[in-house]
Specification:
2 domains, globular, 19% strand, 386 residues, 5-stranded parallel β-sheet
């Protein structure tokens, strides 16, 4: 694999490298880590790369790697840049014959992503998005239980992702991560809604096994001078008849990353919390509450969940392991020949398109006078389900 972005100071790039290395399926062979040449070289040196494989920019990297013999060049380009480079880098990489694993959201807007989708469809390359929370075993277990009818027909979905790190104007204090997230040229048309709202949205659709078709949204910015939203509240209607509430905020002071989903059906409910990912709560109409725990050797857990676990019960697995599950599935798909654009088990273009359609529909509704706005998404039959 080769990295675009992720020089010194990048949290998410470090997480990607650690996750990719966890199961020993990928080797890092090249990178264009930073526009700052010294940062770029220091990062490459620290990672043990040959100097000639540390490139000055991503265009140079793609062109140079494409000229190398097939058994030497990178196979997978990992894109951990700010949002404005997600689609352009993926376009060039796919056209040059490389698979792509990108941070989300997939593009700055839906039109840009549709163009990338056409490029992907005209190729035989694989494409994935780092919706990491869809790599957690007990998220898959929840979905399997919904599909198997444990809680009956789904009626209500409540998903929330509060953070507190943008409660103050830290961009003006030199925080680079906050700075680019509030720049429409680099972040896109949405702030919080694109950064973490899309995580909540994809989790809701995945676990409930239904798609959002209509929404009513309120977006706001609570910090003076901030250009993009830092707080989002959305009412949703889903294709299987469920109604729901989606909350995403980055100004909930004191909160860390307590992403949480509750799904209620006619017979009971399920609850999963990212800060305690090994547990899945099952509530029933006529039975005591029970807590299902992750871990190898638990015969009551589904195959979809168990194959994403590495340790026996009681040994915590978390964010890095969830991301590592996406890398394992990507490695399997590449070694199997990489046909069909979609990586089984990994969020891909279909989820990217729905995420961008969600952002645009929410903004249209917020800015307009209509009570409800339809979520219209150019979609395909591609799905992460196995």
């Amino acid at each position: 694999m080769g990295f675009v972005g992720g020089g010194e100071g990048s949290f998410i790039a470090l997480a990607h490298r650690q996750a990719a290395a966890l199961d020993g399926r990928f080797d890092l062979v090249c990178g264009a880590f930073s526009r700052d040449s010294l940062n770029n070289q220091r990062t490459g040196n620290a990672l043990g790369l040959a100097p000639q494989r540390v490139y000055g920019d991503w265009r140079e990297m793609i062109e140079a790697e494409a000229r190398l013999p097939e058994d030497q060049r990178m196979q997978l380009l990992v894109n951990v840049t700010p949002n404005h480079l997600h689609a352009p880098v993926a376009q060039r990489a796919i056209q040059a014959g490389f698979h792509v694993f990108s941070e989300k959201p997939a593009a700055l807007n839906l039109a840009e992503l549709q163009a990338l989708d056409q490029t992907l469809l005209g190729s035989d390359r694989l494409y994935g998005l780092a919706h990491v929370y869809l790599g957690y075993p007990m998220v898959w277990e929840a979905r399997e239980l919904v599909r198997n009818g444990l809680i009956g027909a789904v009626r209500k979905v409540i998903v929330e992702y509060p953070q507190g790190w943008l409660s103050q104007d830290i961009a003006s204090q030199g925080n680079k991560q906050a700075d680019w997230r509030d720049d429409p040229q680099r972040s896109g048309i949405g702030g919080c809604i694109g950064d973490i709202g899309t995580h909540a949205f994809s989790l809701a659709e995945f676990v409930a096994d239904q798609q959002v078709y209509c929404l009513s949204a309120m977006l706001g910015s609570h910090v003076e001078g901030r250009q993009l939203d830092d707080d989002v509240s959305v009412l949703i209607k889903m294709s299987g008849g469920a109604s729901g509430v989606l909350i995403a905020s980055q100004v909930c002071a004191g909160e860390e990353n307590p992403l949480k989903i509750r799904v209620y059906g006619e017979l009971g409910g399920l609850e999963w919390r990212q800060e305690e990912p090994s547990s899945l709560i099952h509530r029933s109409l006529d039975q005591p509450m029970r807590i299902l725990r992750s871990g190898l050797g638990q015969p009551w857990l589904s195959d979809a969940a168990t194959r994403r676990m590495r340790l026996p019960a009681g040994h915590p697995e978390g964010y890095l392991e969830a991301m590592a599950n996406l890398y394992v599935d990507f490695a399997d798909a590449i070694q199997a020949g990489g046909a069909g654009n979609q990586v089984p088990g990994v969020p891909g273009m279909d989820i990217g398109l729905r995420g961008m359609a969600f952002i645009e529909a929410a903004l249209i509704n917020h800015r307009g006078d209509a009570k409800w706005t339809e979520l219209i998404c150019p979609s395909s039959s591609r799905s992460i389900a196995q």
